[in-house]
Amino acid sequence: VLSATLARNGDRMRLTARLTEVSSGRVVWSSAYERATRQLPTLCGMVARDVAGAFVVEVRQDDAERLTNVRAVDPDVYEAFLKGRYYWNQRTPESLHAAVAHYETAIRLDPTYAPAYAALADCYNQLGTQMVGGGSPREWRPKAAEAAIRALQIDFGLAEAHATLGYVRHYDWEWEAAEQSFRRAIALNPSYPLARLWYANLLSARNRVDEALAQVNAALELDPLSPVVGTNVGWVYGNARRFDEAIAALRPVVER
Length: 256
Fold this sequence. Notes:
Number of strands: 3
Oligomer: single chain
Helix content: 55-70%
C-alpha cells in the first residue's frame, strides 16, 4: 500500500511517501520531498517514477515522458481544478454547476491551463445527459466540444480532452470520429479510466460486445471504487443481456 502525508507552509510543501507490506506491516520504501506548492502536479510524477525505480519496474518511454511533461501550476488554479473534479464526481445538476464555477475560476486565473478546459467540457457533457444533468444536448453538447477543442489547442497531447471530445462525437452519432478520439486518448494515457469507460459505451452501442466488456473491465481495474465506473460496468453487461453479471456489478455500487 502506498500512503503519504502532505504538509503545506505558505508557498512550500513537504510530502512524505511510504510503501508498506500489508502482511507484515514492514515499510519497504519511503522518501520525503520538499517543493514549491506550484509543483504539486509534477510531484505526483516524481513519486510514481521513484516507486517504479524502487521495485526495478521498467517504465515505458511514453509513460516516462508523460510523467515528466506535467507543468507546474499556480496553487490556486490547481485547488480550483481539484474542487471542480470533486463536485463533478457527485453527478447532480447542482454539483455540476458548482464544478463549472470552479473550472471557470481556474481558467480565469490561468487561461493556458488545458486540463481545466477539458474538465469544463466534461461538465457540459453531463449537463446535457438526460440521466444526469437533465439539460438539452442541443444546448450543452456544442459547449462541450468548444471547451474540449480549446484544451487540445493548448495541449494536443492531453488524453482527457480527446476522451471528452469522443464523448461529444459519440452522442452526435459520429461513430468513427468518436472511436478515433477514444483510441487516441487511451494511447496517450492507458491509465485514464473514463476514456475506456466512454469507449466501452460506444462499443456497446455498436453491438461490439466483447470489445465493450474488455474496455469497461479495464476501467474497473483502474478505478474499482468509482460509482461512475461501477454503474457503467453494470450498464454494459445489461446491454449485453448478461443480466446476472450486471446485477453482480451493480450491487456493490448500491452498497457503497
